[in-house]
Write a structure and sequence with these properties.
This protein is an alpha+beta fold. The protein has one domain: HIT family, subunit A. Helices cover about 30% and strands about 20% of the residues. It is built from three helices and five strands; from the N terminus they run αβββαββα. The longest helix has 22 residues, at about 55-80. It is globular, with a radius of gyration of 17 Å. About 20% of the residues are buried. The structure holds guanosine-5'-monophosphate and zinc ion. Zinc ion binds next to helix 1.
C-alpha cells in the first residue's frame, strides 16, 4: 500500500523518475541520487515497509536474492574491488528515508569512503547472556 507522502513509494512506483537498472512487480533497483561512491545503487520494495522490523521475511528474502544478481552486474560494469551492503533502520542508525531500502555501495582501492565502526569490548558472559535472551525470541 503506497504511503502518499513517501518519496520511495513514488520512486519505486515510477511516479518520480529515477535512473532505473531493473524493476519487477516487487522491486525497483535504481541509482542513488547522492552516491557515497561511484555506482551506489538502491534496491527498494514497491510496497511500503518502514524498516527491517516492518518488512516480511518473504519480501526480504526475495530482495536479498535480487541483491546477489545486482551486485554481480555492478561488479562486472564498475570493476569495483569490493562492495558494502548497508541497510539503515531508525534515525539513530542513519535512516533518512523511512521506506525500507538496501544500499549497494561499490568500493575501490583507496577510495576514502567511510562506513563502519570502531571495534568495542565485550565479556564472554555478557555475549552468552545476550545470545540466550535473543534466541528465546526467534
Ligand atoms: P538512508 O539514509 O535512509 O539509509 O538512505 C536514503 C538514501 O536515499 C540516501 O543515500 C539518499 O541519497 C537517497 N535518496 C534520497 N532521495 C532520493 C531521490 O529522490 N532519488 C534517489 N535516486 N535517491 C534518493
Ligand atoms: Zn514508501
Amino acid at each position: 500500500m503506497e504511503d502518499k507522502d513517501c518519496i520511495f513509494c513514488k520512486l519505486a512506483g515510477g511516479e518520480i523518475p529515477s535512473a532505473t537498472i531493473y524493476e519487477n512487480s516487487d522491486f525497483r533497483v535504481f541509482m542513488d541520487v547522492a552516491p557515497a561512491n561511484r555506482g551506489h545503487v538502491l534496491i527498494v520494495p514497491k510496497e511500503h515497509f518502514k524498516d527491517i522490523f516492518d518488512i516480511d521475511a518473504m519480501t526480504a528474502g526475495k530482495l536479498f536474492s535480487l541483491a546477489t544478481e545486482v551486485a554481480r552486474a555492478m561488479k562486472s560494469v564498475l570493476n569495483c574491488d569490493g562492495m558494502n551492503l548497508v541497510q539503515n533502520n531508525g534515525t539513530v542508525a542513519g535512516q533518512t528515508v523511512f521506506h525500507f531500502h538496501l544500499h549497494l555501495i561499490p568500493r575501490y582501492a583507496n577510495d576514502g569512503v567511510k562506513i563502519g565502526w570502531q571495534p568495542g569490548e565485550s565479556s564472554p558472559t555478557e555475549l552468552q547472556e545476550l545470545a540466550k535472551e535473543i534466541r528465546k525470541k526467534i
